[in-house]
Design goal:
- The chain has about 550 residues and is mainly α.
- It is built from 22 helices and 4 strands.
- It has helices at about 5-40, 55-65, 65-90, 120-130, 165, 175-190, 190-230, 235-260, 270-285, 295-305, 320-335, 335-345, 355-375, 375-390, 395-410, 410-430, 435-450, 455-475, 480-490, 500-505, 520-525, 540-549; strands spanning about 115, 140-145, 150-155, 160-165.
- Strands 1-2-4-3 form a 4-stranded mixed sheet, sandwiched between helices.
- Strand 3 (about 150-155) and strand 4 form a beta hairpin.
- Helix 16 packs antiparallel against helix 22.
């Protein structure tokens, strides 16, 4: 038998097998290239949801039994829990910061603070607790963030934070129950932990696949090099072909697995779908109506259409809204349909609690005021108009709506509406005098009329602003130099709050609290017989506005 016969037979067998092997490798190259191109065309991969490798439970259990994988998962999970503990502590320290305008000395504009309204906080927490499954091993706390962007923050600690921006968009308790139930589901399903686990399982399975592929690649490369040497006499051409094919095949395997998976920064679609289904079940169990969910997303979509910045909190993103509406619609027609029908034929769904309207009007008023500070004018306008409609005797809501109107009005009618809200706020606040800025805003609006007949009223409003501010804050406002300048412009260059005034009025100021009524303080400061500087009649202001135009 010739000396080269065995090697020739092996080479012939490899020749028969090599075309299919190379075809498979080239197919992988093309598929990988197409996948990369598609990813690039779809945008930033750092925010794209990860599509996890499908693996059965036995495979996942086998991988998780590996000490290196198990330890890595635990390490990352512990790091997230530690970070969540620190975040919860930081947020919880803001409980007594108050509202944005509560303390004129506080220049901290950080909006990641708790909403300073204990009644609202307790109401949201109580409703959330009613949704938690009875057999849940987790303890929860539901809190409200003072933030105009619709958002939720769910921590592994069991703390669920919902922004005033999102709560201001709900219309009923069922929609609130959906929001809280959805976040509960993320915790109950352990989705953060599962995401970490799946990431490491994916990496390990990819590594094992790469190792197997590398073995095939090495055999093919060696065989091809040997084949070329035997059949073509070991020429440089044959060596080049062998080296090129082997290098290409090896490069394909390594390139495909060299890039690590990037953990998504938002919930994946299947995680959101799962949370939606659980939330709908929580709602039915507690007596809330899942049919209200699509209405909530439609409202969010309407806000986002007016101001795209609403989508900055992910929840308002148009793609997310459309995706959620479609998923919820499938749920309503499928998994929860029978439960809804059973409720309709039986006890029905819960009506809003007696406290709901008051809670919602407070949230909308305060979120509207904050949204105005962030120039989210469309959100502020809708919130404040709704707040005034729900509670017409709310002086603060009228005041903020007046400020917004004065800032954004274009037509004489819009300007007049702002003045009307301002005078209404002064009338509603006359007894308490809790909003000194009302008088400042009114004085400025009178000065804008450029009417000499308004001078005495302007001076009275400026004095009312200063004395009420001093009564409540134990000091004078930061814009004092501007206030005194306006005094001078209106013919009074001598008036100021002298030490004798404090003694004469017998003001007792204890940390912003005083027994002196607004009417008495203003009466003493003005030296008038009237109890308080009643604003001019609406007709007179209307005439001034018309003349200004």
């Amino acid at each position: 038998m010739p000396r080269h016969f065995p090697r020739t037979c092996i080479s012939l067998l490899i020749c028969l097998a090599l075309p299919s092997l190379c075809s498979a490798q080239l197919g992988a190259i093309i598929a990988n290239k197409n996948k990369s191109t598609q990813t690039a065309n779809n945008g930033n991969t750092s925010t794209a949801p990860v599509q996890h490798i499908q693996a059965d439970e036995a495979t996942i259990e086998r991988v998780m039994d590996m000490p290196s994988v198990r330890d890595a998962v635990q390490r990352d999970w512990d790091a997230i829990r530690t970070s969540d503990l620190e975040m919860a502590y930081t947020i919880n320290q803001t409980a007594n910061w108050g509202m944005a305008d509560d303390n004129p000395g506080n220049i901290d504009s950080d909006r990641q603070r708790l909403y300073s309204n204990p009644i609202v906080q307790e109401y949201i927490n109580a409703l959330g607790q009613r949704l938690v499954p009875k057999d849940s091993p987790n303890l929860y706390s539901f809190r409200v963030l003072y933030d105009p962007i619709p958002k939720t923050v769910t921590l592994s600690t069991g703390s669920i934070y919902v922004s005033t921006g999102l709560l201001s968009m709900i219309d009923n308790e069922s929609q609130l129950a959906y929001i809280l139930g959805h976040e509960i589901a993320h915790v109950e399903r352990q989705q953060v932990y599962m995401r970490i686990r799946d990431q490491y399982v994916d990496q390990q399975l990819a590594k094992e696949k790469a190792q197997k592929q590398k073995l095939v690649n090495d055999v093919a490369t060696t065989a091809l090099g040997a084949l070329g040497g035997d059949l073509i006499g070991g020429s440089k051409f044959a060596a080049a072909i062998g080296g090129f094919m082997g290098g290409t095949i090896g490069m394909t395997a390594s390139h495909y697995f060299i890039h690590p998976r990037i953990e998504p920064t938002v919930w994946d679609t299947h995680e959101e779908d799962d949370a939606d289904q659980m939330s709908a079940e929580f709602m039915l169990n507690a007596g809330y109506d899942p049919r209200e969910i699509p209405k909530l997303y439609n409202t969010i979509g309407e806000f986002a259409a007016k101001d795209s910045r609403v989508s900055l909190g992910i929840i308002g993103n148009s793609e997310h809204v459309e995706e959620r509406i479609a998923d919820i619609q499938n749920l309503l027609e499928g998994d929860v349909h029978d439960g809804i029908q059973k409720r309709l034929k039986g006890p029905g769904f819960l009506a809003d609690g007696l406290d709901f309207a008051g809670v919602l009007s407070s949230i909308r008023r305060d979120n509207g005021a904050l949204a105005m500070q962030y120039d989210l004018f469309a959100v502020a306008k809708k919130n404040l108009e709704d707040a005034v409609a729900q509670r017409p005797n709310d002086a603060a809501a009228h005041f903020y709506l007046a400020k917004l109107g004065r800032r954004t009005a274009r037509t004489p009618d819009e300007k007049q509406q702002a003045i009307d809200h301002l005078t209404t706020a002064i009338r509603l606040d006359m007894e308490r005098g809790a909003i000194p800025e009302l008088h400042w805003e009114y004085a400025v609006s009178l000065m804008e009329q450029d009417n000499p007949a308004n001078k005495d009223m302007i001076l009275n409003e400026l004095k009312s602003y200063l004395v009420l501010y001093e009564r409540d804050w134990g000091g004078l406002p930061r814009n004092l130099s501007v206030v005194y300048d306006y005094f001078s412009q209106n013919g009074d260059s001598s008036w100021y709050l002298s030490p004798e005034w404090y003694t004469a009025t017998q003001l007792v100021n204890l940390g912003g609290r005083t027994a002196t009524s607004a009417a008495a303080v203003i009466h003493s400061a003005l030296g008038q017989s009237s109890a308080s500087p009643t604003p001019a009649a609406s007709a007179r202001i209307k005439l001034a506005v018309a003349k200004k135009q």
